[in-house]
Amino acid sequence: MKVSIIGTGYVGLVTGVCLAEKGHRVICVDVDQEKVDKINQAIPPIYEQGLEELLEKNINVNLRATTDLHKSVIETDISLIAVGTPFDGSEIDLTYIQEASHRIGKALQDKSTYHVVVVKSTVVPGTTDEVVLPILEEASGKKAGVEFGVGMNPEFLREGEAIQDFMFPDRIVLGGIDEKSINALEELYSVFDGVDKLRTNPKTAEMIKYTANSLLATMISFSNEIGNLCTALGGIDVVEVMQGVHLDKRLSPIMPNGDRIVPSFTTYLEAGCGFGGSCFPKDVKALIAHGEKVGRPMRLLDAVIQVNEQQPQQVLSLLKKHFPSLKGIRIAVLGLAFKPGTDDVRESPAIPIVKDLLAQEVEIRAYDPVAKYEAQRLFSNHEILYCDDLAQALQDVQAVVLLTRWEEFKRIPELLTHLDPQPLFIDGRRMLDKNSIARYDGIGL
Question: What confidence tens digit (pLDDT) does each residue in 331-375 have?
């Protein structure tokens, strides 16, 4: 199929590159000329594992970028809206969705053939039907379900593993206002064999996305709540507690041959310093606000956010347990991105932790394999020494705090053995064996 994707952010660009790799003819559309030029030069404007390779392979073959939305809609069969939907504290901001819908509608005025418009952005239930569809009809002067189709196709991409998630999905949700719209989505994803595809309406498709993210966020906050209780009680290690929980055969089934399957979702049932990123905090808060708007308080999700917002303080509490005053203490902060595999620092637990350390007049050495420049922009007015490698960050510090589970950090125990005196090590992700480091402390221990 011929596909236009409106918005070349994280979701839009990954979607465009992967659909091109699957054989579709894709046009990525963005208002930012600089970003468009970079994409056409096969330079990804964001960091994502595997993205650069696929972009180089497909650009000017099945993929190109442009600022011309009107022409892109005219030349394609289906348009995916993948613009940002920021949360302002009370509701998601639909400005970009509305602008994209209006411009697509205007383009549809000049198109004689049937076209399908699909929302890919994460939007609260009802947005596609109640916001996008009326704008498309008004701007185009045409009737949805007759002269053009409307759909909703949520993404389930994990930053750092987005290419893998898109190319090998566990499910594809096809939301549409009618059978013809859903069939167009079915055709788009027909190149994905053997994948469960759920046909539904747009409102349900929107709810599926929010429910999926809210469940995973709840699992994380639940685990952190248990970890904090383990710390308060003493003599309990939350890692061992969760290992015992994971062995429930309903969570990790035992095969007839005795082998145990360990599903990847159990990684969300581990204590740490909290969740971040562009999805979980925003989506859970948006669903809470949406519930309040219709008179349905989301008490459980309220607690999920409260626990998460307080969780970075656990790292500070652990440091203060060992240092009566943090003023002048040299501390290595390892990991600034909210998770490994990405340079995204949005809502990263590292941010409030670094801010608190700065307020305590700590001398900070920071290291992250890819998020250095994003962090520098965020803390441009603060004195932080950004290190170029892990070994440098560990030199001449009195404490180390690990905040992101980068694979590279598995080298830490070996690197620490060469240091004298040994710094205090605070494991904010419970990533390393507590017996592998001389002065070890961590969340839930």
Answer: 999 999 999 988 889 899 999 999 999 999 999 999 999 999 999
What domains, with CATH codes, occur in the chain?
A: 2-200 (3.40.50.720), 212-309 (3.40.50.720), 311-442 (3.40.50.720)
Pick the closest to residue 416 from 441, 402, 436, 443 (CA basis): 436
Instruction: List residues with catalytic annotation.
Output: 279
Residues 224-273: tens digit of each pLDDT: 999 999 999 999 999 999 999 999 999 999 999 999 999 888 999 999 99
Asked if the bond preceding 421 is cis, omega within 30° of 0, the reply is yes
d(CA 82, CA 9): 8
- HEC string for the chain: CEEEEECCCHHHHHHHHHHHHCCCEEEEECCCHHHHHHHHCCCCCCCECCHHHHHHHHECCCEEEECCHHHHHHHCCEEEECCCCCECCCCECCHHHHHHHHHHHHHHHCCCCCEEEEECCCCCCCHHHHHHHHHHHHHHCCCECCCEEEEECCCCCCCCCHHHHHHCCCEEEEEECCHHHHHHHHHHCCCCCCCEEEEECHHHHHHHHHHHHHHHHHHHHHHHHHHHHHHHHCCCCHHHHHHHHHCCCCCCCECCCCCECCCHHHHHCCCCCCCCCCCHHHHHHHHHHHHHHCCCCCHHHHHHHHHHHHCHHHHHHHHHHHCCCCCCCEEEEECCCCCCCECCCCCCCHHHHHHHHHHCCCEEEEECCCCHHHHHHHCCCCCCEECCCHHHHHCCCCEEEECCCCHHHHHHHHHHCCCCCCCEEEECCCCCCHHHCCCEEECCC
Strand partners, 148: 115, 144
The pLDDT value recorded for residue 160 is 84
Instruction: Give the tens place of pLDDT for each residue, 306-338.
Output: 999 999 999 999 999 999 899 999 999 999 999
Phi-psi region for residue 257, left (φ > 0), alpha (ψ -120 to 50) or beta?
A: alpha
